[in-house]
Specification:
Elements lengths: L2 E4 L8 E5 L6 E10 L4 E11 L4 E4 L10 E5 L3 E5 L6 E6 L11 E6 L7 E5 L4 E2 L1
Antiparallel strand pairs: 1-2, 2-3, 3-4, 5-6, 6-7, 7-8, 9-10, 10-11
Keywords: Repeat, WD repeat
InterPro entries: DCAF7-like, WD40/YVTN_repeat-like_dom_sf, WD40_repeat_dom_sf
Protein name: Ddb1-and cul4-associated factor 7
Length: 129
């Protein structure tokens, strides 16, 4: 495990997204949640992710009114729609002006006041909203 984040949705209590760290292209993200009847965590969804995730973050939605989204960073910022058993890619956000070089994203943060905004930071010191 390299990155992780707890969901804050009230209808998805005790849900965690976990990212693998394998020093190659093929990595995984897994969504696990607690079965409150058995007190066991179980995998609800697992999906492929290019390169290790430098950060994983659920949409900051403490009221459960927005789509159930998960963002990951690595080579690009990816936004996923969470589902059981399948989580699907909604979009890939790429701000690179030069297609020959990809400056990996080191981190990002989701705006809690306006969840339509995400700020990213890149290894080349670029910050993008």
């Amino acid at each position: 495990m390299y990155s992780m984040n707890w969901s804050v949705r009230p209808d998805k209590r005790f849900r965690l997204a976990l990212g693998s760290f394998v020093e190659e292209y093929n990595n995984k993200v897994q969504v696990v949640s607690l079965d409150e009847d058995t007190s066991d965590f179980s995998a609800k969804s697992t999906f492929d992710h290019p390169y290790p995730t430098t950060k994983i973050m659920w949409i900051p939605d403490s009221k459960g009114v927005f789509p159930d989204l998960l963002a990951t960073s690595g080579d690009y910022l990816r936004v996923w729609r969470a589902g059981e058993p399948e989580t699907r890619l909604e979009c890939v956000l790429n701000n690179n002006k030069n297609s020959d070089f990809c400056a990996p994203l080191t981190s990002f943060d989701w705006n809690e006041v306006d969840p339509n905004l995400i700020g990213t930071s890149s290894i080349d010191t670029t910050c993008t909203i």
